[in-house]
Protein backbone atom coordinates (compact mmCIF):
# COMPACT_ATOMS: atom_id res chain seq x y z
CA UNK A 1 0.00 0.00 0.00
CA UNK A 2 1.44 3.38 -1.04
CA UNK A 3 1.34 6.41 1.23
CA UNK A 4 -0.52 9.31 -0.32
CA UNK A 5 1.48 12.57 -0.72
CA UNK A 6 -0.57 14.53 1.83
CA UNK A 7 -0.21 11.69 4.38
CA UNK A 8 3.55 11.67 3.82
CA UNK A 9 3.79 15.41 4.61
CA UNK A 10 1.63 14.97 7.72
CA UNK A 11 3.88 12.11 8.82
CA UNK A 12 7.02 14.22 8.30
CA UNK A 13 5.57 17.12 10.31
CA UNK A 14 4.51 14.73 13.09
CA UNK A 15 7.99 13.17 13.28
CA UNK A 16 9.64 16.61 13.33
CA UNK A 17 7.26 17.73 16.10
CA UNK A 18 7.87 14.60 18.16
CA UNK A 19 11.66 14.98 17.85
CA UNK A 20 11.48 18.45 19.46
CA UNK A 21 8.70 17.58 21.93
CA UNK A 22 10.89 16.03 24.68
CA UNK A 23 12.88 19.27 25.02
CA UNK A 24 9.72 21.29 25.51
CA UNK A 25 7.99 18.94 27.92
CA UNK A 26 10.73 18.45 30.46
CA UNK A 27 13.36 20.58 32.11
CA UNK A 28 15.90 18.12 33.46
CA UNK A 29 17.73 20.47 35.83
CA UNK A 30 14.95 22.47 37.43
CA UNK A 31 17.42 24.11 39.81
CA UNK A 32 19.47 25.55 36.94
CA UNK A 33 16.30 26.71 35.15
CA UNK A 34 14.95 28.32 38.32
CA UNK A 35 18.31 30.02 38.89
CA UNK A 36 18.25 31.43 35.35
CA UNK A 37 14.74 32.79 35.99
CA UNK A 38 15.88 34.27 39.31
CA UNK A 39 18.86 35.92 37.60
CA UNK A 40 16.57 37.52 35.02
CA UNK A 41 14.30 38.73 37.82
CA UNK A 42 17.35 40.11 39.59
CA UNK A 43 18.29 42.03 36.42
CA UNK A 44 14.84 43.59 36.62
CA UNK A 45 15.44 44.58 40.24
CA UNK A 46 18.78 46.15 39.33
CA UNK A 47 17.23 48.13 36.46
CA UNK A 48 14.45 49.48 38.68
CA UNK A 49 14.34 53.24 38.87
CA UNK A 50 13.39 54.94 42.14
CA UNK A 51 9.69 55.75 42.18
CA UNK A 52 7.52 58.02 44.26
CA UNK A 53 4.91 56.70 46.62
CA UNK A 54 1.59 55.72 45.09
CA UNK A 55 -1.00 58.35 45.87
CA UNK A 56 -4.35 56.66 46.37
CA UNK A 57 -5.98 59.79 47.83
CA UNK A 58 -8.51 60.40 45.10
CA UNK A 59 -11.59 61.25 47.15
CA UNK A 60 -12.45 64.44 48.92
CA UNK A 61 -14.04 64.49 52.33
CA UNK A 62 -16.81 66.92 53.36
CA UNK A 63 -14.19 69.61 54.09
CA UNK A 64 -12.56 69.30 50.65
CA UNK A 65 -9.50 67.45 51.97
CA UNK A 66 -8.14 64.51 50.01
CA UNK A 67 -8.57 61.17 51.72
CA UNK A 68 -7.18 57.72 51.02
CA UNK A 69 -3.81 55.99 51.29
CA UNK A 70 -0.30 56.94 50.35
CA UNK A 71 1.51 53.65 49.58
CA UNK A 72 5.28 53.17 49.44
CA UNK A 73 6.07 51.92 45.91
CA UNK A 74 8.67 49.44 47.20
CA UNK A 75 5.96 47.76 49.30
CA UNK A 76 3.28 47.88 46.62
CA UNK A 77 1.77 45.09 44.62
CA UNK A 78 2.23 47.26 41.52
CA UNK A 79 6.01 46.92 41.86
CA UNK A 80 5.78 43.12 41.92
CA UNK A 81 3.38 43.08 38.97
CA UNK A 82 5.75 45.27 36.95
CA UNK A 83 8.72 43.03 37.82
CA UNK A 84 6.94 39.78 36.95
CA UNK A 85 4.90 41.09 34.02
CA UNK A 86 7.20 40.15 31.10
CA UNK A 87 9.53 37.80 32.97
CA UNK A 88 8.49 34.57 31.22
CA UNK A 89 8.52 36.32 27.86
CA UNK A 90 12.11 37.42 28.53
CA UNK A 91 13.00 33.80 29.28
CA UNK A 92 12.49 33.05 25.59
CA UNK A 93 15.93 34.66 25.14
CA UNK A 94 17.49 31.75 27.06
CA UNK A 95 18.61 28.35 25.82
CA UNK A 96 20.68 25.41 27.00
CA UNK A 97 24.36 25.31 26.11
CA UNK A 98 26.43 22.16 26.37
CA UNK A 99 29.48 22.94 28.53
CA UNK A 100 30.97 19.45 28.32
CA UNK A 101 29.70 15.93 27.69
CA UNK A 102 27.70 15.81 30.93
CA UNK A 103 27.01 19.46 31.79
CA UNK A 104 24.58 21.96 30.27
CA UNK A 105 23.92 25.50 31.43
CA UNK A 106 21.25 28.08 30.67
CA UNK A 107 22.56 31.04 28.71
CA UNK A 108 20.95 34.32 27.71
CA UNK A 109 21.17 34.82 23.96
CA UNK A 110 21.17 38.44 22.91
CA UNK A 111 21.82 37.62 19.26
CA UNK A 112 20.44 34.32 17.95
CA UNK A 113 22.49 34.70 14.76
CA UNK A 114 25.72 34.25 16.76
CA UNK A 115 24.49 30.98 18.26
CA UNK A 116 26.41 28.08 16.69
CA UNK A 117 24.24 25.25 18.00
CA UNK A 118 21.13 23.78 16.38
CA UNK A 119 18.76 26.78 16.29
CA UNK A 120 15.60 24.65 16.19
CA UNK A 121 16.68 22.77 19.30
CA UNK A 122 17.79 26.03 20.96
CA UNK A 123 14.37 27.58 20.29
CA UNK A 124 12.68 24.49 21.74
CA UNK A 125 14.74 24.93 24.92
CA UNK A 126 13.79 28.62 25.06
CA UNK A 127 10.10 27.70 24.86
CA UNK A 128 10.62 25.04 27.53
CA UNK A 129 12.16 27.45 30.03
CA UNK A 130 9.50 30.05 29.24
CA UNK A 131 6.71 27.58 30.04
CA UNK A 132 8.65 26.38 33.12
CA UNK A 133 8.79 30.04 34.20
CA UNK A 134 5.01 30.27 33.90
CA UNK A 135 4.54 27.16 36.05
CA UNK A 136 7.10 28.41 38.58
CA UNK A 137 5.38 31.78 38.91
CA UNK A 138 1.98 30.16 39.17
CA UNK A 139 3.31 28.04 42.02
CA UNK A 140 5.19 30.80 43.91
CA UNK A 141 3.70 34.15 42.88
CA UNK A 142 1.48 34.77 45.92
CA UNK A 143 4.21 33.98 48.46
CA UNK A 144 6.83 35.85 46.43
CA UNK A 145 4.55 38.91 46.21
CA UNK A 146 4.07 38.95 49.99
CA UNK A 147 7.83 38.66 50.58
CA UNK A 148 8.50 41.50 48.12
CA UNK A 149 5.90 43.72 49.77
CA UNK A 150 7.48 43.05 53.20
CA UNK A 151 10.92 43.93 51.81
CA UNK A 152 12.26 40.43 52.47
CA UNK A 153 13.60 39.98 48.92
CA UNK A 154 16.76 41.95 48.17
CA UNK A 155 19.11 42.01 45.21
CA UNK A 156 21.32 38.95 45.64
CA UNK A 157 18.63 36.98 47.50
CA UNK A 158 16.23 36.29 44.65
CA UNK A 159 17.66 32.88 43.73
CA UNK A 160 17.67 31.71 47.35
CA UNK A 161 14.13 32.92 48.00
CA UNK A 162 12.63 31.70 44.71
CA UNK A 163 14.56 28.48 44.11
CA UNK A 164 15.31 27.23 47.62
CA UNK A 165 12.73 28.68 50.00
CA UNK A 166 9.58 28.89 47.86
CA UNK A 167 9.90 26.23 45.15
CA UNK A 168 12.45 23.86 46.73
CA UNK A 169 14.06 23.20 43.32
CA UNK A 170 17.52 23.97 44.70
CA UNK A 171 18.37 22.56 48.08
CA UNK A 172 21.87 23.90 48.65
CA UNK A 173 22.85 23.53 44.97
CA UNK A 174 24.35 26.39 43.05
CA UNK A 175 24.24 26.92 39.33
CA UNK A 176 25.75 29.42 36.95
CA UNK A 177 24.28 30.89 33.83
CA UNK A 178 25.81 33.09 31.14
CA UNK A 179 24.88 35.73 28.62
CA UNK A 180 25.85 35.27 24.98
CA UNK A 181 25.85 37.60 22.03
CA UNK A 182 26.13 41.02 23.65
CA UNK A 183 29.56 42.48 23.06
CA UNK A 184 28.88 45.41 25.44
CA UNK A 185 29.21 43.37 28.62
CA UNK A 186 32.57 42.15 29.87
CA UNK A 187 31.23 38.85 31.25
CA UNK A 188 29.72 37.75 27.95
CA UNK A 189 31.41 35.50 25.47
CA UNK A 190 30.76 35.07 21.81
CA UNK A 191 29.53 31.84 20.23
UniProtKB/TrEMBL annotation:
Superkingdom of origin: Eukaryota
Keywords from the UniProt entry: Signal
Pfam families: DUF3456 (PF11938)
Signal sequence residues: 1-26
Residue ranges of every copy of the DUF3456 domain listed in the record: 30-170
Protein name, per record: DUF3456 domain-containing protein
